[in-house]
Design a protein that fits this description.
- The chain contains no helices and 23 strands.
- The protein folds into 2 domains: 1-31 and 190-313, Immunoglobulins (Immunoglobulin-like, Sandwich); 43-182.
- The strands form 6 sheets. Strands 2, 4, 10, 14 and 15 form a 5-stranded antiparallel beta sheet that branches. A 5-stranded mixed beta sheet has the order 17-23-22-19-20, with no helix packed on it. Strands 1-21-18-16 form a 4-stranded mixed beta sheet, with no helix packed on it.
- By secondary structure, it is an all-beta fold.
């Protein structure tokens, strides 16, 4: 493991030097994702719908998976953002149906606006799925969608879910939730990078905390990629690149640094290297969802952005 991090790193970690705005290959620049002045959406300002994607999926669709679509819109007076993986509770005939939460979806926070014609980075709708994996959950007449921190929750009558197969409960069942921004044209296309970036980080952090985490660079194309050959050439961090990290949605939490390459070695095809990192959570960070994002500054076709869902508690 190669040690590097930001100011206020843990003992034994090497703090790299800050760098100015960096010209990125292709003419872009590494800049904050956070939109100044826009805060997390209180649940009272949100319109939430949980429903089956297609009526024909009831009794059909995925085997041993309970599946609803979730759509969230900003019904408040101003733009705001939601996290990528809200918490969900399930109820049947007024009684709680306990289902443990699985790994959260580590996407970007989603900036919403009541104005459907607003330009990027705002969206009119955040959409995604709520899945119970491993079994079919029947009789659910209410789900409670919690948006984190003290933002509140919304109760929704979801109707029947898609899925068929083994009835819940079963050993190891968990639920998964995701939200991502849906462009006005409905397109959700993206890109697949030649280098994977994986983050291992805590699920929660406190304002003012120095949050330690690990970043692993994998010298292999993103899974299911047909844009690159299955085997990359050896990845050599020379010249030593810069990287940026951010707690999305929290002002003052974007930083750009030079990577500490003193102990780094070339990464062979299919190999990986792990770097120790740290980011300071601003003391004024409000409770609620954020996304920890990290990437080497360079061509977005080469270096994947690593993301990890984080709750400020």
């Amino acid at each position: 493991m190669v040690g590097c991090g930001t100011a206020g790193t843990a003992p034994g970690m090497v703090g790299p030097s800050p760098v100015p705005w960096l010209n990125v290959a292709g003419g872009g620049q590494a800049r904050p994702f956070t939109v100044p002045g826009v805060t997390a959406c209180p649940a009272s300002d949100l319109s939430v719908r949980v429903h089956v994607a297609d009526p024909s999926y009831v009794g059909g669709g995925p085997k041993d998976v309970t599946w609803w679509v979730i759509d969230v819109a900003d019904a408040g007076p101003a733009p705001c953002f939601v996290g990528s993986s809200p918490e969900v509770s399930f109820y049947a005939s007024g009684a709680s149906v306990p289902v443990p939460r699985g790994a959260p979806f580590s996407g970007d926070i989603v900036y919403l606006t009541p104005d459907a014609a607003a330009p990027a980075p705002f969206f009119a709708t955040a959409s995604g799925e709520i899945d119970v994996n491993g079994c079919v959950l029947s009789g659910v007449d209410r789900v409670l969608v919690d948006f984190g921190g003290d933002l509140g929750s919304v109760a929704v009558a979801p109707g029947p879910a898609a899925g068929w197969g083994a009835a819940c409960p079963v050993a190891g069942e968990t639920y998964f939730s995701e939200l991502y921004g849906v462009p006005a044209n409905g397109s959700r296309g993206g890109r697949l990078a030649a280098t994977q970036t994986l983050i291992t980080a805590p699920a929660t952090a406190a304002p003012g905390e120095d949050l330690d985490f690990l970043v692993t660079l994998v010298n292999a194309p993103a899974p299911h990629s047909e844009l690159f050959s299955p085997t990359n050439p050896t990845l050599t961090l020379d010249p030593c690149p810069a990287y940026h990290e951010e707690l999305e949605g929290i002002p003052g939490a974007f930083h750009s640094y030079r990577l500490d390459c003193a102990a780094a070695v070339p990464i062979p095809p299919g190999g990986s290297e792990t770097f120790a990192m740290s980011v300071q959570v601003p003391g004024a960070a409000p409770p609620g969802p954020t996304t920890l994002a990290w990437s080497i500054d360079g061509s977005p076709q080469t270096y994947q952005i690593g993301r990890s869902y984080l709750e400020i508690a």
